[in-house]
Amino acid sequence: YLNNTAYLVDPTLHDLSRGVALTLSISAVFVGWLLYDVLWRYLGAKAPGVATVLTVLMLFGAIFAFGLLFSGRGAYMQVGVMIGTIMTGNVWMVIVPSQRELVNATNEGREQDATLSIRAKQRSIHNNYLTFPLLFIMVSNHFPAVTGAKASWAALLGAMTTGALVRP
After folding, report:
1. What is the pLDDT of residues 14-69, one digit of tens each?
2. CA–CA distances in Å: residue 40 to residues 43, 86, 142, 163
3. Which of 29, 112, 115, 158 to pair with 101, CA 20 to 30 A apart?
4. How many whole angstroms separate alpha carbon 8 and alpha carbon 13?
5. Distance separating alpha carbons of residues 114 and 148, to the nearest angstrom
6. 0.85 cut: is pTM over it?
7. How far apart are CA 50 and CA 83, in angstroms?
8. Which pLDDT score, from 0 to 100, does residue 4 have?
9. Of the candidates 131, 132, 129, 155, the residue with the CA atom closest to the CA atom of residue 143
10. CA atoms in the 13 A half-sphere facing the CB of 156
11. CB atoms near residue 122 (< 10 Å)
């Protein structure tokens, strides 16, 4: 962001101004977290299969859109920041508060709310699935053949899919 969006913008794709590129980038991070959190907070408990499909579609759609808007390297960094924000949000907005409440309930002799435990476990599993793609993104910036490819978004989708399929 500080380097005049040199990594983010590819003038051969779009001649985005610095302000537009920054607004799109930062907005996508916050909107991504909000959509994900609302989806899993309200639909995840009732229909986790539907929430999973919608989450994967939104993530793949974001990857594809970022690949069209930003440079390959910028798109990878954008996806990485979005995934990292989701993972951090999961920890600080769901997992840790749930754990605190469960411990408080135990210490006070109250019955634990099972939905807190289920929700925290669900988000922890999500973070587990997102770890490999995030590591791939971190390493990929050292390999311009990956991020600079015409369809670099497809390599990222492939890595994410492979990571999900490999996980037991």
Report:
1. 788 888 888 999 999 999 999 999 999 999 989 999 999 999 999 999 999 998 88
2. 5, 12, 34, 21
3. 29
4. 11
5. 47
6. yes
7. 20
8. 56
9. 155
10. 36
11. 17
